[in-house]
Amino acid sequence: MGNYVNMEGVEAIMTDPLESPSTSTSRIESGMEGMRVDPSIFDQAMESLAIHADRPQKRPFDDLRDAGPPADPPSFPQHRMQRGRRADVCVCNPETRDVGRAKNVLFCVGDGAGEEAIYNVSRAYWPVPAKKTMKTIMGHVEICHVLTRKIRSKKDCYESDSDDSHDDDSFEDDEIMFDLTSDLVAIKVCYTQRMSRYRNRHAENPLTEVSAMQVIGKDHPNVVGCLEVLFDGANLNVVLPYYGGGDLFEQLTDPQHRVSQRDPGIPEAQARFWFRQLINGVAHLQAKGVSHRDISPENVMLDGTTLVIIDMGMCIQIPYSHANGTTETADRANGTDRRLIKPQGTCGKNPYMSPEIFLNKDPFDGHAVDIWTLGTILFCMLTGNTSYQIPHPTDAQFYWMTEGLPNLLDQWGVVLSPEGQDLLKRILTVDPRERSTLEEIQNHPWMQNVDVPLDMAPDWR
């Protein structure tokens, strides 16, 4: 979570995309004369934005241009957080009736202060002792047991036991006790010193992420929600749901999950099952007026048969014309017509980044940049191969993905339905004006076919 892939200084010699997936990641061509492409093709596609008015068929992109001049993203509302604290507490396992001391337990103290604050705590989080933390840019992520406040005393915990071996003088009989539950959460711990060091120097901002999640809400099954935000005096602790299936990147890169070496991708019906949930998650973000800007397989978690988009650290609000009719812009809740966004810098992971974000020269559509990333993820799922290294035609694989997809698939021996190929081509369109919108994707013939859930697919698990 939160990993930022820095692809600066990409080698001038790229991996040949026309090799098989099994060899394309292991061999570097010493020369690609036969694969070299004319970068002017890319420039022409981007320059075509200036002549949209001459095109007879109006596209949704034109409405953004007509709504008013490009604008900066509106600021997210002020984040909301509560006071937190870490301490050692007494924990009882209801199943075994064992009692022990849990260390470094996090809980909310609200407006309380001092030792008595714990008496008002109903829920706490205990880092799983045997689970290693995962490093992030701003700190780490820890998996925690959920503890609930025990109403009974320590003595009551043993009331049916005649064995005196439970007695432990290290606990007071009236000490506050918590019950261990089977629930888990993931806590994103952001170090305040590191947050200060990276302020205005990195695209990821934990406070913006908190604000974004609070705008997005926590009720959509395909977008991560924020359960609690606790500041313990040293760190910002963002409590999130725990997803036990790992991320999509792990699933795509694990050879055990391939149906066969001959067909390394996910079968289309199963890929559509996951892709439909991705679409639903992005539709929710769009409805809230938010552009994610960093959707990638690493930022997509799996939990049983549910897919969840996570990591809102690079989210921005999309500007809208203000409802008061002035030249001001507003967020989705207070606006009318969606606007283009002024360049905000290059951010995200290069293999999934849209070409307009990579170039960072022209105003962009906050919806279209997320749609592009969905196309790269669908490409990876269907082909079993990785994406390009940089979204520019000097990267040979990017060129063939956007200008010669049928030839690329043929050389790799990847067989896709005509509908699947057509959808990929429409999403991976360099010109954002011509790129498929979310509604067009939802209505595409490929999306009308039957899904196969994970549990119904014995060859993919």
Automatic annotation (TrEMBL):
Region (Disordered): 55-84
GO biological process: intracellular signal transduction
Chain ranges of the Protein kinase domain: 103-447
Annotated Basic and acidic residues bias: 55-66
MF term (GO), any: protein serine/threonine kinase activity
Keywords: ATP-binding, Nucleotide-binding
InterPro entries, per database record: Kinase-like_dom_sf, Prot_kinase_dom, Tyr_kinase_AS
GO cellular component, one term: cytoplasm
Protein name: Protein kinase domain-containing protein
Species this protein is from: Attheya septentrionalis
